[in-house]
Design brief:
This protein is α/β, with parallel strands linked by helices and 307 residues long. The protein has helices at residues 35-45, 51-54, 60-65, 99-110, 130-143, 160-168, 185-188, 194-207, 225-237, 264-277, 294-298, and strands at residues 49-50, 70-73, 77-78, 88-89, 114-119, 148-152, 173-175, 213-219, 242-247, 281-284. The two termini are 15 Å apart.
Amino acid sequence: MSKVAKQPEISLLPPEQGKGRLPPWIRVRVSGSGVVDAVHSMLDQGALHTVCQGAQCPNQHECFSKGTATFMILGEVCTRDCLFCAVRTGRAQAVDPDEPQRVAAAAERLQLRHVVVTSVTRDDLEDGGAGLFAATIRAIRSRLPATTIEVLVPDFQGRERDLDIVLAARPDVFNHNLETVRRLQRSIRPAASYERSLAVLRHAAGAMPQPAIKSGLMVGLGETDEEIIEAMRDLRQAGCELLTIGQYLAPSPRHTPVERFVHPDVFAEYARCGTEMGFRNVASGPLVRSSYHAEAQFNPDGRREHA
């Protein structure tokens, strides 16, 4: 793991847009590509779920139009009820042991060079779903040996044995989102914790032979810029090398409201600070999400390498 760079001096950040209507810099471009319908059809035929649809990602049309998607395993019902997330919560579904092979087949059909696999949180399972993550990694690798694989995992309630099951399958990128600043964790992620998420990342950074550890933050939940910088420092100290920062958009009136719309200049300042902290790559912008342009972030020069 590379040494953490000395902390940057934080300059005065530009002012943010307050609450209210969407500002002009948040615009989702919609393509007319027929590939979108083809991806939807393939996912339906394979009984597969994507976080793009489940979490109402604003970039799903762009990604689908390019033939890409982030697969969501372990069903589409989450056992937690985070106040920022659009994924359904409730009684979880039975685990489908054939799901890894279906995901791998879909990835092969889409000819993906970089596959992202995430899941709902399954606190009802003894291993939190770690075994199915590992099986999915192996299934994809067997069909697409040159493809890089990124996993975006829940915290497995902090159990290192479950983390090790996933890590033993050797994903190229291990991602776990911190989501928000320390002060807002309890109100936004009541079943998670700031320190537990940092511990998950720290463990993965120490366990992987060539760490590509990634995390993500949302802004607009009521945090200050200083708190975001503090969270970035904590992530870097935990061994995180790749970071995404994006604007929170409330999925519905019942979810936590947006407290501010952050200006693109502020996102650029976050990226500058992250670079000075020693992050290898910081994707920071209003519509950035955890797996948006994930391949380009992992290998910005286009190379794909395996240990």
